[in-house]
Amino acid sequence: MKKQNVKIIQSVSRAIEIIRCFDNNEELGVTDISKILNLHKSTAFGLISTLEAYNLLEKNKYTGKYKLGIELFRLGTKVNSNLRNISTPYLEKLLKRYEETVNLVVRDGNFAMYLEKIESPHSMRICTKVGQRLPLYSTAVGKTILASLSKEETEDILNTSEIKKYTEKTISDKEQLFEHINMIREKGYAEDFEELEEGLTCVAAPIINHTKKAIAAISISGPTSRMNKELRLEIGRTLVKVTKEISEKLGFINI
Fold first, then answer.
1. Of 75, 80, 144, 169, which is most buried, counting CB atoms within 10 Å of its CB?
2. CA-CA distance, 22 to 34, in Å (whole number)?
3. How confident is the model at residue 143 (pLDDT cuts 50, 70, 90)?
4. What's the Cα-to-Cα distance from 163 to each of 58, 73, 141, 169, 180, rounded to whole Å?
5. What are 214-246's pLDDT values in tens digits?
6. Would you say 133 and 105 are in contact if contact means Cβ atoms under 8 Å apart?
7. DSSP secondary structure of 216-232
8. How many other C-beta atoms can be found within 10 angstroms of the C-beta atom of residue 156?
9. Could you tell me if 197 and 139 are in contact, meaning their C-beta atoms sit under 8 angstroms apart?
10. Cβ 180 vs Cβ 137: under 8 Å
11. How far apart are CA 105 and CA 127, in angstroms?
């Protein structure tokens, strides 16, 4: 996400936009990219060639198209490495205990970005994937992050977000969202009843920093048929304990 009031260097901006073209595309050709970004083909080719030279893009010798390069993966593993290293053993224990999908997300502006995901051993699969960004208001992880913020910050996020319904149960009314977030503050964890995906229920708790704001969150997601009231209550209490321990290990002891 571009920050406001920052001087933008056009060539760098275009290179970043090229990389972002692969967010929803595994492979793209020069012509594809030039059309997506409305760039002259020679300009697109020059930028792509430069990115390829630094292994940020990789060319498929059989198709002639490009995909994200190994250097991006290497650099990506360095992002939030401390949070990942500390959280991963907890994620694995949660999976073993509940046998439902476990997610670790970080806040990215008005969005929650999925940093880690460990799938349930059951056959049902959850629609989210690592690297995906979803609005804070539409998921348990996002709502538990919102609940850690001040009323003013929450209002600013909701006022600058495109509020849309993913399912019939998505809370899209802002007043209802404010009331819902206040309830989450009191409980200490959030629940999502098929608000992102039909048949899917999630429970999440925040990882809090020294200013008492959430920098990340952990959730457990499963089919609504298995996530009954008693289980959700147990998971909620467990997640609050787990995220508190992670916060303390990250050095956020004033929570």
1. 144
2. 13
3. very high
4. 36, 32, 16, 13, 15
5. 889 999 999 999 999 999 999 999 999 999 999
6. no
7. EEEEEEEETTT--HHHH
8. 13
9. no
10. no
11. 15
